[in-house]
Amino acid sequence: MSKDIKISAKGVDVFYGDTHAIKNVDIEIENKAVTAFIGPSGCGKSTFLRCINRMNDTIDICRVTGDILLEGQDIYAKSVDPVQLRARVGMVFQKPNPFPKSIYDNVAYGPTIHGLAKSKAELDEIVEQSLRRAAIWDEVKDRLHQPGTGLSGGQQQRLCIGRAIATAPEVLLMDEPCSALDPIATAQVEELIDDLRQNYTVVIVTHSMQQAARVSQKTAFFHLGHVVEYGDTNKIFTNPEDSRTESYITGRIG
Amino acid sequence: MLTLTFFAILALALVFFVVGRSRAVAVVRGDVRLLHSRPNFHGTLAMLISAICGIAMLVVVGSLWAAWLERDLMAAILNADQNLSAIEAELVLSDARALASGGIASKTDPLREGIAAQVASKDAWLKWGTIALSMLFAIAGGIWALRSIAPDWRARNRSETIIRRILMLTAAIAVLTTVGIVLSLIFETINFFNNIDWQIHKFLFGTTWSPLSGVQAGKLDPEKVGAVPLFAGTLMITVIAMLVAVPVGLLSAVYLSDFASPRVRAWAKPMLELLAGIPTVVYGFFAAITLAPSIRNSGEAIGLTIASESALAAGIVMGIMIIPFISSLSDDVINAVPQSLRDGSYGLGATKAETIRQVVLPAALPGIVSAVLLGVSRAVGETMIVVMAAGQGANLTANPLEAVTTVTVQIVMLITGDTEASTAAGPAFTLGFTLFCVTLLMNIAAQRVVRKYRELYD
């Protein structure tokens, strides 16, 4: 596994109005690996995730201080356009949210607005590739022009992952991507996340510790806005250094 | 006096409620668990039965007796003076009533005074008789209900049934009123078509509208009831209105829902909705007095002849009137598009404009379409603005700078004109019926679209 750093955060604080949601977080996320954020509800892990592609910009009262560097470049610098940033750092949400368009148009949406395809044939190719990588191509190839909202929950979530892949991002952020899915769909999405590691840097927020243990190489444990412990997943789950981490993963707090 | 009786019956019913309740408790010697229904329901049932018996009697006896009395007095008047026509006799009766109650009559003569004496005595009979009968029934009903009270008496089920019936009755009043209006429209329409010998195509496709000219003995000329100029005028003004209202309304809705800061939205939206609260008559004289002359003047400045009453002026002002409709409804449906869809689009690196154009608006489209259709049906039925600003002459033209007339304007002209109501009503009701059909179809279409939209996110 390559050990180069894709994203590095230094002294990040986030405020929602008067609420101090993230407190002085330092974290370095490895390239082409899966990093899991775990922690009890309200600990700030989703908030921090949303800082990485500046989705918090859409919330008026939210304020972010500190540095987040993507390949050494500060993403909160004035020269960075959040729209361009989000094309590089894609996001998959908790609840599957396909657009009320056809399956094909859902996937073609990103490439079209970013002008990634020069011809219809090229666009077709991107759509097929994305859906294949999202492990859903075989299920939808015969009904590409039917609405994406007609798929099952697990299929919708994989469609959303395919949609995110289609814009050729470098990083994929996933905010509890399996929390609305049944165990079978969850297993499919987890398998998919494992495959995605070959091409993308994946950051996943999850409530399921088993899921974090299964899919991630690095794990960060968030508690009350702090990163309590960050390290190799194996180590966190077998030999945590902090007593709070141990309490959480053995189910005593959270 | 009868109103007072009504309240007396209600008060009586309240007494029966209290008595019924305590009687229910007494029947089981205070152990209310033995009762099928709780004491309150026994009281409620006694109250309802007493009130219904009393009020039903008040209505039935009161109206029947009054009708009988009226006939009796009319007969007496016609007996006394056989030269009177029916209308004159009615006048005598109303004068007599006025005299009897100490009011002012149009004139006083022995006939009127004689009838007045009769009115006074018979009215007293009518009044006291009705009061006595209805109070008697209220008491009888209440006592019957009280006597029925027993531990296994199902007072709750019975009172709930009665209340359900009362609710049904109130709903039926609303529905039956609508049915009645539609039926009267249909009957008058049939009368009108009968009057023009069922040449319906002359009405639907004829181009000359002058229904009341040359009317002889109430017979209309089928050649002069062509409503096409009216339909064309309505259509033209509606199109102009929608050309103003749809872009402005829709874009302001987009601004309010996705761009405005909460503070701007907090005052801008109520302001916009205030526009809907302006009476249409105000819009009307705004169109006639302010906008129409300025359009004419600016037209003259560039060498155009514009009538002082033009479809353009009426249409523009009507469009302004409809803006709040479209913007408010569209704003609601745009807000109803889930934030998760917007987030999904932003997460892919879409700009705000791309998100709105390609995700939000398509998702909200069915709701927007129905808002526009509701706006159209408002425009088609709008009256006051066009009466003041569009003109009255039924001329068929495609030029929005000329005066045109609309269906609604012609209905106003027919009904407020001095032609006999029986002649003018036919064409007026037929136009009204046509209008009703058009707006009904639009509303049905709008509701269907809305239903389809709801299915998408449930």
UniProtKB/TrEMBL annotation, chain B:
The keyword Transferase does not apply. It comes from the Bacteria. Residues 231-446 form the ABC transmembrane type-1 domain. GO terms for molecular function: phosphate transmembrane transporter activity. The keyword Transmembrane helix applies. It is a multi-pass membrane protein. PROSITE patterns: ABC_TM1. GO terms for cellular component: plasma membrane. The chain crosses the membrane at residues 6-24, 45-68, 125-146, 166-187, 230-254, 274-295, 301-326, 359-380, 424-446. Gene3D superfamilies: MetI-like (1.10.3720.10). One of its GO terms (biological process) is phosphate ion transport. InterPro entries: MetI-like, MetI-like_sf, Phosphate_PstC, PstC_N. Pfam families: BPD_transp_1 (PF00528), DUF3708 (PF12501). Keywords: Cell inner membrane, Cell membrane, Membrane, Phosphate transport, Transmembrane, Transmembrane helix, Transport. It is found in: Cell inner membrane; Cell membrane. Belongs to the binding-protein-dependent transport system permease family. CysTW subfamily. Part of the binding-protein-dependent transport system for phosphate; probably responsible for the translocation of the substrate across the membrane. This is Phosphate transport system permease protein. It comes from Litoreibacter arenae DSM 19593.
